[in-house]
Here is the input.
Amino acid sequence: MSTLEVKVWRGGEEGEFQRFEVPRLESQTVLDVVTHIQRHLDPTLSYRFACRVGMCGSCAMVVNGRARWTCRTHVADVTDGDSLEIAPLKNLPVIKDLVTDMRDFFDKWAAAQGQFHPTTTRKDDFARVEPESPERQQVDAGIECIGCGVCYSSCDVVSWNPEYLGPAAMNRAWTLLNDVRDGANEERLAAVAGDAGCHACHTHMTCTERCPKQISPTAAIAGLKRAALKAALKGKL
Amino acid sequence: MKNDWRSRNHPAWWAFLVHRVSGVLLTLFLPLHFLTLATALQGEARLEATLRWIDQPIVKLGEVILVLLLAAHMTGGIRLLMLEFMPWRDWQKSLLAVAAGLTLAVGLAFLLNLT
Here is the structure.
């Protein structure tokens, strides 16, 4: 049986990579590798996971320099020879080993008005939204986000401006902006059109390259830019 | 912790870099351009000397690079405007290829016209 040379980040913001040798198995995922290390080599290793099937968005890490969902990433697709380098997500404070503090990431969803603001009550009839309508199509393109933080970790604008709302929060704002049932779009546009909002995006498109759900936050941010421009021309922003 | 080049190594990031670097170089060129033109104010002889200096092969090569930079910055800018203002489609990478192709075509056309 061949072995994998695995370097894993140990420590917090300050720390170093520790080397492990892990048996190479068929169809092995990066999360399998991390789990093997914790169960058999060093039980003090900290990392996050929950569903193991690409639904929950807990297990994102930086593998050989790129942020990925580790449960759905096969070792065979990412190894550099027989070596793997596994680090915590970038642009977020490291708590310990592979675990980051994701508070900033989720607080920014709230700051971008990522909450649904209903315009009807439970006493009203169901809203009827045509599946083929342009708005619904825009929502469909971005709604499958699992909040894994891969885009946020990959975004250079977040590194350059820590206040920047980031791709996921603005993707969420864009899906709500296109939700015909929502009643807070003026506030939402004001929230995302500031210095640290959509206009700060440099269109590097790393978020779009790396999103494991093939969502394009760049498209969402471009949509927000157009919406903000329209609102500004109408004097509403 | 921040990302390194392994994370940035993809076509759209390179397009950003080309756009930014060409923009900075063109900004640096602009004052030189005005200085050269301004030699006309110091008399015909001075302007002639400048024009002869420009005729040197090495400066001509510089001109080709300048045209390439201008074409790269323009096509890159058009690409960005299309990404931001047109309804989103999945042809961003084709757009990149078109921008790069147009840049080379413009540079080549200029180069061939020189000979």
